[in-house]
Amino acid sequence: MNKVHLFNPENDLALALGCRHYTPPPHASALHRAGALLPAWWAGADDSIILPPRSGGDYTDDLAWLNARWGLSPRPYIATEEDPSLSPSPWGWSLDTCRQFVQAGFPATRLPDQATVDTLRLLSHRRSSIRILSALGEERLLPAEVTDPGVAVEIETAHPGCFFKSPWSCSGRGVFCAGGIPPEVIRSKAQGIIHRQGSVMVEHGYDKITDFATLFHSDGKQVTFRGLSLFITENRGVYSGNVVAPQAVILDMIDRSANHASPSSRLSIPHRISDLTSALGQVLTDLICPHYTGWLGIDMMIYRDTNGEIRIHPCIELNLRMTMGVVAMHVADRINPSTPGLISWQRTVTPPDHHTLLLPPRDGFALTLDSHPGL
Predict the structure, then answer these.
(1) Among 216, 293, 318, 319, which lies 20 to 30 A Cα-Cα from 300?
(2) DSSP 352
(3) Strand runs (DSSP E) across the chain, as ranges?
């Protein structure tokens, strides 16, 4: 089927509110507009992309730039009479996503009904990690879902350095590390998250070595493993960017990070990842099919346990949507880089040295590839 793509990176924020008419904050709206053509990197030849109205002009120059620079020829979506061959393909699903498709003229009969979207919202809640870890037999790693801020403080007191997370958020936002924060401040911040989203997820802190993710795709009947993603976060968990490299190189980088941290480690990273992705394929099929069709990612972590052993945390969280890890994989497939680079959003229209533009810079944002990231 021909896909109609929509880049709506504000979707996790829309899920948090759960309403059909959501107004994102200015920075999220700006990123939406700046990245409107991002699906060109994975869209098929007969696919099209919903482009938001642009004040002071259209997308003619941007389309020409993408074709001249990268050989991409995206087709803007133009509403026509209902076409049974069209399939909606957003960054993520919410009631607001459906509104945006209808607003663009996409037939409402081709969209998920409200019951399905409500189910996807619940599956996108961070508590899904509890179900996934339990199915994998990893009860020792389970986070806690807390509705009492006093209990949240008690957990941090017993296990200093916990991470507190909003049930719906992305890119490390809506997350804070409680280490070194006074109890009354922890209580206040936890209460705020509970008030806004109904609960707060509390996870023990780990001696992290490497962040990475496993990437899957669901056809509505089965979830299959498609690749790996290696991403960079700041100390407090805020997302910085994704490594762009062939899959074999990414696996080797993950493996080398563990070996560097502990040369005597008995854990075979490639074999452990292979075992995990095989098990997760079935766990995720049972969890999200037939409700969800599209890309998804499981954030993982290589860490050192209290005994000094190197381990893999098999599910920090489920991202039931397109991810920048999937974007990085598509970019790598298209440009076949000779050395690893780092794809990231820059809050600038003039990229730094060694950064290559992947989209025309707009609205104060530039999507760039750093060819010398010092990885």
Answers:
(1) 293
(2) P
(3) 2-6, 48-49, 86-90, 144-146, 163-165, 175-177, 200-203, 207-219, 223-233, 239-244, 293-304, 310-319, 341-346, 355-357, 366-370
Is a pLDDT exceeding 80 seen at residue 48? yes
Distance (Å, whole) CA 183 – CA 179: 10
Q: Which two tokens stand for residue 142?
A: 């389970």
Q: Which two tokens stand for residue 195?
A: 């008030």
Distant-in-sequence, close-in-space partners of 15: CB < 8 Å, separation ≥ 6: 92, 94, 121, 124, 168
Mean pLDDT of 61-71: 97
**Reading across the β-sheet that carries 48-49, which strands appear in turn?**
48-49, 2-6, 86-90
Residue 278: alpha-carbon gap to chain centroid: 21
CB 320 within 8 A of CB 120: yes
How far apart are the C-alpha atoms of 169 and 7, rounded to whole Å?
17
Structure tokens at 370: 């750093």
C-alpha angle 257-346-38 in degrees, rounded to nearest 5: 90
**Cα–Cα–Cα angle for 242, 249, 327, rounded to 5 degrees:** 30
- 3-class state of residue 374 by DSSP: coil
What integer pLDDT is reported at residue 374 of this predicted model?
76
Phi-psi region of 183 (alpha: psi -120 to 50; beta: other; left: phi over 0): alpha
DSSP type of residue 41: G
Phi, psi of 274 (to 5 degrees): -60, -45
Q: Between 190 and 19, whose confidence is greater?
A: 190
Q: How many CA atoms lie within 13 A of 106 on its CB side?
A: 28
Task: Report the pLDDT value the prediction gives residue 237, as an integer from 0 to 100.
Answer: 66
Letter string b/e over residues 225-259, b meaning 16 or more CB atoms within 10 A of that residue's CB: bbbbbbbbbeeebebebbbbbeeebbbebbbebbe
Whether 59 and 87 have beta carbons less than 8 Å apart is answered as no
